[in-house]
Specification:
Length: 369
């Protein structure tokens, strides 16, 4: 690496602070190589280019994409590092029996543990962006920064792929998602139940014959079933549904004589979900559930429909890092700049392993709404 004297830059305005003393600045190996090989004409141009790339990298990492909710829904674990190819985790079950025995008994019942081992692959996700020599020269002459939207575009592309894997996995790459994944993925063993029919007729749809009371009953039953069927091991703390279904809960009155919505009444009168923020409206769950007819009949064991062309439902979750988490052993990064043809290319990549569904009993899907 090479150290040179340069003017400092105001990070807010990107202007040179020429009235201040020069400061030491370290040119990285990649840019120094471009200078020494004549691709970049001087230390001055090298400093300009390296500072621009540093700024672009920081800016692209700061960009937020609120429509991609996968990362924000589940805990993130980055253990492992760049070199691992498989992540293995174990799920144990304790078994034992105690009996009333005679004082000299020798055949005491034994306790033991059993467990299953699950493996998920770690895959490399990558893309790139670049600038031509002409773009670099023009930026330096005019004092304008290099285009940051190129870096933003590839970062968004990366996050879109990560988001898709978090929800649906990738069966062909042995990556597990929250809703789907390769054969044998724990996510596929989560309970699926069709909601109850309306009392006024054989219809399970929220927008069919169901009254607000019956919609509230669906939500309440779903929360209670998880808590009861798991012997109070899993206490539901979130409900995931589509934007339209959450809006239905928010905008439909409890009754014609009430100014309380379905959601407000439910939040005030159940033991599990107390805030509207715990009911997550998620674009990706619209139309993904197995299709049933109006009466609730149909096959509910099929795959979730990533193309969003099937049925509606909601999912009750006991969300905690010990139950499920996203694994990203090596977060997305920009590699050192390379010169190819007449272009400076910046390759970017990360290592991603999908979702570890450690305890699928902490997830229950309700179908048919």
């Amino acid at each position: 690496m090479k150290t040179v004297q340069v003017f400092a830059i105001d990070e807010a305005t990107r202007e040179l602070l020429t009235a201040d003393e020069k400061v030491d600045y370290v040119i990285c190996d990649a840019v120094e190589h471009l200078i020494n090989s004549g691709v970049i004409t001087s230390d001055d141009e090298g400093v300009f280019f390296q500072r621009q790339l540093e700024y672009i990298q920081a800016q692209s990492y700061d960009v937020l994409y609120p429509e991609l909710k996968g990362r924000g829904l589940l805990a993130l674990n980055t253990e492992g590092g760049e070199g691992i190819n498989v992540i293995t985790y174990r799920s144990y079950d304790k078994r034992g029996e105690t009996a009333i025995i005679a004082g000299k008994a020798t055949d005491l019942p034994r306790g033991d543990i059993s467990g299953k081992e699950y493996s998920t692959s770690v895959r490399t996700l990558g893309n790139a962006f670049g600038y031509s020599r002409q773009e670099l020269a023009s930026a330096k002459v005019t004092g304008l920064p290099l285009e940051a939207r190129k870096a933003e575009a590839v970062r968004k592309s990366y996050e879109e792929k990560v988001n898709q894997i978090i929800f649906f996995g990738s069966a062909e790459n042995n990556l597990q998602g929250f809703f789907d994944g390769p054969s044998g993925a724990p996510a596929l063993t989560s309970t699926r139940t069709v909601v109850a029919q309306a009392s006024a007729g054989a219809n399970v749809r929220w927008r069919g014959l169901k009254t607000p009371d019956e919609i509230i009953a669906d939500l309440t039953t779903a929360c209670v079933q998880m808590y009861e069927s798991t012997k109070q091991l899993f206490r539901p703390n979130e409900i995931w549904m589509s934007v339209a279904n959450k809006q239905l809960l928010m905008n439909t009155p409890r009754s014609l004589q009430s100014d309380t919505s379905i959601m407000n009444w439910f939040l005030a009168n159940n033991d599990f979900i107390s805030s509207a923020d715990q009911i997550k409206d998620i674009n990706e769950v619209k139309g993904i559930y197995p299709t049933v007819n109006d009466a609730g009949a149909g096959t509910i064991t099929g795959a979730f429909d990533e193309d969003q062309a099937s049925g509606e439902g909601f999912t009750v979750v006991a969300n905690a890092a010990d139950n499920m988490r996203v694994r990203e052993p090596f977060p997305y990064m920009h590699l050192p700049v390379q010169y190819k043809g007449l272009e400076f290319e910046i390759n970017c990549y990360g290592r991603f392993a999908g979702v570890e569904m450690i305890r699928p009993g902490a997830v229950e899907h309700w179908i048919g709404i």
